[in-house]
Amino acid sequence: MTETTGYDVVVVGGGAGGLTAALVLARSRRRVAVIDAGEPRNAPAEHVRGFLSQDGTPPVELLAAGRSELAQYGVDMIGDRVDRVEPGFTLSLASGRQLTARRLVVATGLRDELPELPGVRERWGRDLLHCPYCHGYEVRDQPTAVLGTHPAAVHHALLLRQWTDDLSYLPHTQPVSEQDRLRLTARGIRVVEGEVDRLEIVDDQLRGVVLAGGELVERQVVFIFPRMVPRDDLLRSLGCDRDEQGWVTTDRTGRTSVPGVWAVGNVVDPRAQVVTAAGMGSAAGFALNNDLVQEEVELAVKDHLGRSEGGSGT
Hints:
Layout: E1 4-12, H1 16-27, E2 32-36, H2 59-72, E3 76-79, E4 82-86, E5 90-93, E6 98-106, E7 110-113, H3 120-123, E8 128-129, H4 132-135, E9 144-147, H5 153-160, E10 167-170, H6 178-186, E11 190-191, E12 196-202, E13 205-211, E14 216-218, E15 221-223, E16 227-230, H7 233-237, E17 261-263, H8 274-312
């Protein structure tokens, strides 16, 4: 027989958003569990950036500190994967364990789909980068390229010009409109035509980008815009509303269209950095506790009236 453990709130996902939501709720004296499969999106990154007081902290250390803080408040940290969630909420884990929750927070993040080019996966998070705000300052003034692997790549290049004067845009398979070519040229960004064949790596360092014709475009840093795919299977299975782009919609506190379900971080916002996700988790924690309090007040009033009516008849 499968043992079932009950919680006020179960948080699925142990990144900054999920852990912060759990912290707020635990400090509100709620019984909380965090289920984490141990696959953080920022695992390849060496440092967290743009997080006041935590700038430069390795992601693994930030998460370890968060888990340690939660342990002081009695939060159950469960290393597992959620296979399915049933309305109500009953969560079935890959290990066979079952949990029940009055409320649910989904903070499962997203995955980056990278182009199938030799060298890309090996250099991801090192000298093949995505976020200018996360990495731009560290690679400032270096010879940099942007690969046209996504419709937003031109905007990516125009944004990165803020960090370096030596910037090349390689359209690869993305056509460049005349207007975009004008904008790139006006900003001093060199457009290098030709399909990309691979990244050239020498002595474990990026040397540049090799085009299909064999030309080497020497660069020390390459940026790409990956296709971001939310890990939102649980939210989809519960029937949460989505926008025209297919992302689950929430209000400002992370509340979804399904009663009792909140979602925070990259699973609903691809632009959310670590500090943003933490803020979203905090907002969700406040809203969740308030939602639980309202439910408890309503039940208490109903119970009180029931006892009063029963007593008046004796």
